[in-house]
Amino acid sequence: MEKVITTTVCTRCYGSGSFSYNLKDGTICYGCGGTGKVPTTPKGQKKVKPTCTSIHKAKVGDILEVSRVLYKVEQIKWIAYTVKHGLLSEPSRESNQQLIVTRLVDGKKYGFKRAVCNSEGFAIHTPEEMIGQEI
């Protein structure tokens, strides 16, 4: 039986998606992750819980929790290896896979990137024939 997921207005920010200011995240509400909505389930049905809390361990079909927002992993595919350089105080971000996810509170689709590493801990440079293939 498929779980029914509905939403209600976040009781922390009253639907605005903003709460008190902090230097790290600005005014994003931690109750709803800035969406203004929180997922709920009908009476008698168990609460929707994530099956995975790490983008790096997610598989197709998982319910993924990122910053208190729930997403369903729809597709994972290989992409060309890329490196995004951040500020001097931040490490570079490598990626070679993309997760296509659906946000459960409103059904919007997003893409998260992640890096799959080899046994030595280095990100795999994606071979041309693998780019675009689903996992």
Question: Key features?
Answer:
135 residues; mainly beta; SH3 type barrels; four-stranded antiparallel beta sheet
Write up this protein:
This protein is an all-beta fold and about 140 residues long. The protein has two domains: about 50 residues, no CATH class; about 90 residues, SH3 type barrels (Roll). It is built from no helices and eight strands. Strands 5-6-7-8 form a four-stranded antiparallel sheet, with no helix packed on it. A two-stranded antiparallel sheet has the order 1-4. Strands 2-3 form a two-stranded antiparallel sheet. The two termini are about 25 Å apart. The model has no long low-confidence stretch (mean pLDDT about 85).
